[in-house]
Here is the input.
Amino acid sequence: MSNRGGEAPARITLSLHGGKVCPVTVGPGAIADLTGILREIGAFRLAVITDSNLETTHAASVAALARSSGAEAVVLAFPAGERSKTRATKESLEDRMIDAGLGRDAAVLAVGGGVAGDLAGFVAATYMRGIPFVHIPTSLIAMADAAIGGKTGVDTPRGKNLIGAFHQPAAVLADTRFLGTLPRRELTAGFAEMAKAGAVADAGLFRALEALAERLANGDVAAVEEALPAAVQVKASVVSADEKESGLRKILNFGHTVGHGIEADGGYAMAHGEAVSIGMIVEAEIGVRLGILAPEAAGRISALLRGMGLPVAPPEGTSPSRVWKASASDKKARGGRIEIVVPREIGEMARGERDFGIPIADEVALEAMEACWTPSR
Ligand SMILES: NC(=O)c1ccc[n+]([C@@H]2O[C@H](COP(=O)([O-])OP(=O)(O)OC[C@H]3O[C@@H](n4cnc5c(N)ncnc54)[C@H](O)[C@@H]3O)[C@@H](O)[C@H]2O)c1
Ligand SMILES: [Zn+2]
Here is the structure.
């Protein structure tokens, strides 16, 4: 890893289509870059979109900083939680922006977790046919994953993230000082995405996480700061190479096919990162059974996740067949068969026939899942 955390924020640049770039600042004090970013995008009328948990804390302090930089800022909050990630919330935010007199020269600051980021980004994508926005992620899931890559959107009763747009932020300011107030369960959920980044593309990050696991499990934000820049770099590199998810970007779905099935089967009671943790273990087990991944590597993945305090066994009340069925209804399913992506070793993905997707027969998946569902493991 090139960036050590703790002292100064790291700066990472995403190269995008058409020669555009998206600067990402990650680390303690990253928010100080806001003044310069606002000047660069030339927006001084701002909607600070956030959720009800952060309205009077982090969002208020971001709005105060923006105002001290000479901008006008209104804070618009929606009720916290995934249930707010809907077209109805988007519509209400848009109406409030119109009522506040915000026009084409306005910009959005998305302050919060992945829900605020996905919603606010989608609002910015279509407001007045598209205005700039800045991601200011405050949860670890949002810093390590959701804020990077330009995917925005909302859920519908028929499925998650079905309506949305690609809209790249003008910048991402991931200030790790915000993590100090994040509930422990939310912090731990974010470790799953960092472990995923290491497993799919950065063996050095994976080793670093193994060394930091105990401190991470204790909620040590300084340990997060040591590993986070490398995790962000993985996502940034993958997005730079494949902005609109045609091939390489698929590798970020490790753990997510089965993870989504687990989330759906459990009625979305689990944190996303918890479901992804179990999903990575099941998908690694499938990889082992297909002879793609060595059992020792699969063992390292589950040992790391357990060591960081993540769940590694499926929750009670879920069943392999129902989870697999729920995975199949996921929009990533293709041609009647479900695909997963699996590392061939830590830090390097196996290739399928066309790309990184590996079609999985139902029997193989169900056998691997039965093994993971057996309590003795
Ligand atoms: N766009 C993408 O590429 C992408 C990638 C991954 C996940 N996502 C989306 O992200 C969402 C999950 O993100 P999430 O886990 O951040 O959920 P979230 O936004 O609901 O945040 C989780 C909880 O933590 C609270 N919170 C956030 N930051 C806090 C802080 N600093 N202090 C105290 N409380 C804080 C929030 O109020 C919320 O209650 C899902 O909707 C998922 O689809 C999107
Ligand atoms: Zn995820």
Observations:
- The mean pLDDT is 93.
- The longest strand covers residues 159-166.
- The first helix runs from residue 34 to 41.
- The CA atoms of residues 43 and 106 lie 6 Å apart.
